[in-house]
Design a protein that fits this description.
Among the domains are: 134 residues; 122 residues, no CATH class. The strands form five sheets. A five-stranded mixed β-sheet has the order 10-9-13-17-16, with no helix packed on it. Strands 11-12-18-14-15 form a five-stranded antiparallel β-sheet, with no helix packed on it. A four-stranded mixed β-sheet has the order 5-6-8-7. The relative contact order is 0.11. By secondary structure, the chain is an alpha+beta fold. 50% of the residues lie in helices and 11% in strands. The two termini are 31 Å apart. It has 30 helices and 18 strands. The radius of gyration is 30 Å and the shape is globular. Strand 2 and strand 3 form a beta hairpin.
Length: 821
């Protein structure tokens, strides 16, 4: 049997080129929310630090600083990003994501090909996996799932090679083991830890169900362990950041956080009719928020073939096991099918999240399960399993059409009829589906003859009728083509009909996913998303000597303020502006608690990575501790701590005026008297102490351990004490010159993480967490130069472990090569 890999690669490349034409040849660039607010700004910051000859330890631009190397967006250790660093950030992301679309599709085809007779079936598997709604909807949200999904089939392919080498005692075991280990390592490094975790679950189940001997388990465990070692340079710093984050402590995340984004049962309709609730990228959409998180549309052809297999496994495909194959092959075939069906079952059990008792059990029992939110992302099991099952089923039909004609055609006809009836049922029950909790107010308004509501209702009904009609049409053509395979008379006719079926599936996926594309002209995307406006220039001048600014939320939500897109989450990085706010999936819990206290919110309010600030509730003295020098608000503020320094009319009518205020007491560091809090106090209790009338946040600092063993009784900071910040020119380095008559505590406006190191006049000194979330350094009496550097031990330990793991892998490969000689 010819593998036809060059032909398969070409077909999938042409399909990728067709889908990515706007990006490759049309002058467009991806502009999903997470790309413009996370991907491009953070990648740009990383590049600029490298260009200055500085290792990217620290990101100073938002949240009062946070680790850069330990960020979950691991651009920095994934080789493709390093190779494309000279290119503009948006072009780098476009090329990497498109290449991984093709790479993942080709990998799926390569993995499935030995089990299939027809190259066409292998092509179908690749297209259904990488161009499914699961992959592409998230691509256009700006999620970097594609790069990790692409490695899933390659891990399985590498394991198959290694299994065969082990069984045959081949001299290629060393190189195959290296392939297997490298595939796992690259999957882990490829930016998205959640999808890497799910991929490892799939790999482990595959290895378990198809195991031939206990020896395979040792090789599997060794490969996984060595892969983790190779990734240690990224994993160890990331684990420190994750364990310090909100809702991601060492005990795991809260149930409410994990189940955020649970799939509503009604959203399962989108697996049949992707736009049943309207196009989620346009006004009038009335489905579940976050459509991209709950969709996994597989095409009508993929769904049809999956159902055909499930309904006809014993009646149609039983003959496949009776065609003279050996016992070992028969056993592997059965186990392979069980594995694919298990993928569907796992997805069905977990995607409902808080509505599923099995998900609750997984949350409490499965290691690592309580680290990731959005249960809808577990559609990856369904997408992967259905893509493989569809290709498997199509291949069986193509090679056994005559033996399966009677029963197979009957089941296809039954599915065809059921699909048409389902479409008709959805068509006729439009009003029922519109009376959901999210749309009941619209429906009730329409009943009352409100013109606007009536227009909305008419539009919703039209959307349902249109898209269910499209579903019925595509489903009918799909069924007719499959019937045509059964009754084709020559192999050429079979190949022709099979090719038409493949094109129908591919076209269906393009039709369903093209409307979700979020792109903008590459030539103008920077000017549109990160414009250099009058406000940017004002802030650059106001903060030229350092400091941060803060946007308030009272009149307009800062996160969606259309008047100032250049100041939205993380985008100020592009203008070298530092802000207290921002967005990241992983956010310091210490910092979040303090910001809740400053903004007057409940301490248990999950900031969602972006914080919330309402003008009338802000504690301006506490805010000044964070070197926040400029405050932007749409309201006129009268607090004595503030001084208005600028304003702008944001619309022609003058109804929205943005005011800029100077926060007078803001400084980058203070010399403070340490105030001890009980060592067994919780973070919440420490935060509440900041609001105590007995605590002066401008001259005192809360600490959990005495900073000076030989001088425990510091009662007052010398009135003549002073501290001066010295520009260091490096993102992860802070330099201060201090002078005081007594020992004191230097408290800086940097967010505390365990990786901070300090020296006082060149002598090492420990860094304490002060005021819950700030960094503090004990300073003796007199004049001193204090230098703080963010240098987490995990980076050096991880680099050493990665180097040793790489050396072990090389030695293992060389050993087996010597055996071969």
């Amino acid at each position: 049997m010819k593998n036809n890999f060059p032909l398969i690669a070409l077909v999938l490349f042409l399909f990728t080129l067709l889908y990515g034409y706007p990006l490759l040849l049309g002058g467009q660039t991806l502009a999903g929310d997470d790309i413009v607010t996370l991907g491009i700004p953070i990648l740009t910051a990383f590049k600029e630090q490298l260009a200055r000859g500085e290792f990217p330890f620290w990101n100073p631009w938002f949240f009062a600083g946070r680790p850069l190397l330990g960020d979950v967006l691991g651009f920095f250790t994934y080789p493709p990003y390093l190779l494309l660093m000279p290119l503009p950030s948006n072009l780098t992301l476009d090329l990497i994501l498109l290449v991984h679309l093709w790479f993942g599709a080709f990998g799926m085809a390569v993995w499935m090909r030995p089990r299939l007779q027809h190259a066409l079936s292998a092509c179908l598997a690749g297209v259904l996996l990488m161009f499914s709604g699961y992959a592409l909807a998230r691509l256009h949200l700006g999620h970097f799932f594609i790069t990790t999904i692409a490695w899933l089939p390659w891990m399985l392919w590498a394991w198959d090679r290694l299994r065969n080498s082990i069984e045959n005692e081949s001299d290629q075991r060393g190189s195959d083991f290296a392939l297997f280990t490298s595939a796992i390592a690259l999957s882990i490094l490829s930016v998205n830890p959640q999808i890497a975790y799910y991929s490892l679950i799939i790999l482990a189940l595959y290895a378990l169900l198809l195991a031939r001997s206990w020896c395979e388990g040792l090789w599997f465990a060794g490969g996984c362990a060595l892969a983790l070692g190779l990734c240690a340079v990224q994993l160890l710093p990331t684990s420190v950041t994750a364990n310090a984050s909100w809702d991601r402590s060492s005990e795991g995340a809260a149930w409410s956080y994990i189940t955020d984004g649970s799939v509503e049962p009604r959203m399962l309709l989108t697996q049949l009719v992707p736009f049943f609730f309207g196009n989620p990228t346009r006004p009038g959409y009335w489905g579940q928020m976050g459509y991209g998180e709950v969709t996994a549309y597989l095409s009508m052809g993929g769904l049809f073939l999956t159902l055909l297999y499930l309904l006809g496994r014993r009646t149609i495909f039983k003959q496949r096991w009776l065609c003279g194959i050996g016992d070992d092959e028969r056993r592997d075939t059965i186990r392979f099918e069980i594995f694919l069906v298990a993928m569907l079952v796992l997805s069905a059990l977990f995607i409902l999240g808080k509505r599923s008792p099995v998900f609750w059990l997984g949350y409490h029992i499965i290691p690592g399960f309580d680290r990731f939110r959005q249960p809808g992302r577990m559609f990856i099991f369904y997408t992967f399993g259905s893509a493989a099952l569809s290709a498997w089923t199509l291949d069986r039909l193509l090679i056994q059409r005559t033996q399966l004609r009677a029963r197979g055609a009957s089941i296809v006809a039954l599915l065809l009829l059921l699909g048409v009836l389902a479409g008709a049922g959805l068509w006729n029950s439009a009003e029922y589906w519109m009376q959901t909790p999210d749309t009941a107010h619209i429906f009730a308004g329409a009943i009352k003859k409100i013109p606007e509501a009536l227009a909305t209702l008419t539009q919703m009904r039209s959307e349902i009728i249109l898209h269910t009609g499209i579903f019925v049409a595509i489903w009918s053509v799909t069924g007719m083509l499959l019937l045509g395979i059964f009754f084709a008379k020559t192999p050429k006719q079979v190949l022709c009909i099979g090719s038409l079926f493949f094109l129908l599936c591919a076209g269906d996926l393009l039709h369903a996913n093209w409307p979700l594309q979020s792109t903008q002209p590459r030539a103008t995307v920077v000017q549109k998303q990160y414009p250099e406006t009058e406000r940017v220039r004002f802030l650059q001048n106001a903060l030229k000597d350092g400091g941060r600014y803060l946007c308030m939320d009272t009149a307009l939500d800062y996160r969606t303020d259309g008047f100032q897109p250049e100041l939205l989450t993380n985008r100020p990085i592009m203008h070298k502006l530092t802000t207290l706010r921002g967005y990241s999936p992983v956010n310091s819990k210490r910092f979040g608690l303090v910001m809740n206290q400053i903004s007057g919110l409940p301490l248990d309010f999950n900031p969602g990575g972006q914080m919330r600030f309402v003008d009338e509730k802000v504690d301006w003295k506490l805010l000044a501790l964070w070197d926040c020098r400029v405050v932007l608000s749409y309201q006129k503020l009268t607090a004595p701590e503030l001084k208005e320094i600028a304003s702008w009319n944001m619309d022609a009518a003058g109804e929205n005026t943005l005011h800029a205020y100077q926060l007078k007491a803001a400084t980058p560091a203070r010399l403070c008297q340490p105030v001890l809090v009980p060592s067994d106090s919780t973070l919440d209790e420490q935060v509440l102490c900041l609001d105590s009338p007995k605590f002066d946040c401008l001259t005192q600092a809360l600490v959990m351990e005495a900073p000076f063993e030989d001088t425990p009784g510091i009662t007052k900071v010398d009135a003549s004490a002073s501290v001066h910040a010295v520009p260091s020119g490096k993102s992860g380095t802070r330099v201060f010159e201090t002078e005081s008559a007594t020992p004191t505590l230097l408290v800086t406006a940097e967010s505390y993480y365990p990786g901070w190191k300090a020296t006082v006049d060149g002598k090492s000194e420990h860094v304490l967490p002060a005021n819950v979330a700030q960094c503090a350094v004990p300073v003796p009496a007199g004049k001193h130069r204090v230098e703080m550097r963010y240098r987490p031990n995990g980076v050096y330990q991880g680099a050493a472990i990665s180097a040793v793991s790489l050396l072990l892998l090389v030695l293992l490969v060389r050993r087996f090569r010597r055996d071969e000689w």
